[in-house]
Specification:
With about 300 residues, the chain is of the alpha+beta class. The chain contains 13 helices and six strands. Helix 7 packs across helix 10, helix 8 runs parallel beside helix 13 and helix 10 runs antiparallel to helix 13.
Length: about 300
């Protein structure tokens, strides 16, 4: 018998011993041997591992597979519990909170344009209403008119269609620069300190029982679902505005199309900051949409 065959037989003998089988010459000896303590401990560990797998791990894995990015219908179930940090009572009255917000906002960014924007009134009410609009796919413009970039949306005519002029994306650079300059952890700290006031403003909008923090996260997911465009956005002149000829882009929500018109570079920068803020809020990264790149399609005319 060769050495390899000897090794193979020894491996087969070990496998049979593990399965509880013995050879004829060892049967009496095994019956007389007391039950090994090591084997007893091993069985206990196997049982414990089985209980963990079926009762804990498998159930958690099942829950984890529910969704990659939770749709609005199940979003409330998937969000982390709201933080209990922050004052039990609002630090000031909602309608007298602008000065406090301006003071605390100095901690989140030193960009000079932010201070200019915060000269507006009813800052918390504006913020809450804008976030609610975005979470529902609507335009936040009525509530943040101070973000309005200079100039007009610029297009270039090519044949009988138009394309968004890439040079026009520079109109939004200041807005993006301010947003990217925000310190995410400080923003979360500011929000948590102001959350009672945000919640009060949210109730005034008609949401008496909903957690505004979850609405923030829905708004983040909404904007992160906007594709980063690779190529030209082809438009057609309508009565009052332009229509995107690619149905996949035209069917985006109004909030997403507002972000889209900022240009791919700006969209990528904003989405990176939104991801950072969501993580700072405690939102699981695997629940956030991944960046999606998209080459616009031009339908036959």
């Amino acid at each position: 018998m060769t050495e390899n065959e000897n090794d193979l037989n020894e491996e087969k003998i070990e496998e049979k011993e593990i399965a509880g089988e013995t050879f004829e010459g060892e049967e009496i000896e095994v019956r007389k041997r007391p039950f090994p303590k090591v084997l007893f401990v091993f069985l206990i560990l196997v049982i414990a591992a089985a209980l963990y797998y079926f009762l804990i791990y498998k159930r958690a894995a099942k829950d984890e597979r529910l969704v990659d990015v939770p749709p609005a219908a199940v979003f409330e179930k998937e969000l982390p519990p709201a933080s209990s940090e922050g004052p039990a009572k609002p630090p000031v009255e909602l309608d007298k909170s602008d000065d406090l917000v301006r003071q605390l906002a100095k901690e989140i960014s030193s960009h000079p344009r932010l201070a200019e924007w915060l000269k507006s009134k009813d800052l918390i009410r504006r913020f809450v209403a804008a976030v609610d609009n975005i979470a529902n796919g609507l335009s936040p413009r009525p509530h943040i008119d101070f973000f309005q970039p200079p100039g007009e949306f610029v297009t270039v005519k090519r044949g009988d269609v138009y394309v968004a002029d890439p040079e026009g994306y520079s109109r939004y650079h200041t807005v993006v620069d301010v947003f990217v300059s925000l310190e995410s952890d400080q923003c979360v700290s500011l929000f948590r300190s102001m959350k009672p006031l945000c919640q009060e403003a949210y109730r005034d909008l008609g949401y008496p029982d909903q957690d505004f923090e979850q609405t923030i996260l829905r708004a983040i997911v909404e904007l992160m679902g906007t594709p980063v465009i690779e190529g030209n956005i082809v438009l057609e002149k309508a009565v009052l505005n332009y229509v995107i000829l690619d149905p996949a882009l035209e069917n985006l929500s109004v909030a997403q199309k507002h972000l889209l018109r900022m240009g791919p570079e700006n969209v990528g920068a904003i989405q990176a900051k939104l991801r950072e803020m969501a993580l700072a809020l405690g939102f699981p990264e695997d629940r956030l949409p991944r960046t999606r790149y998209y080459a616009p399609q031009i339908p036959e005319r």
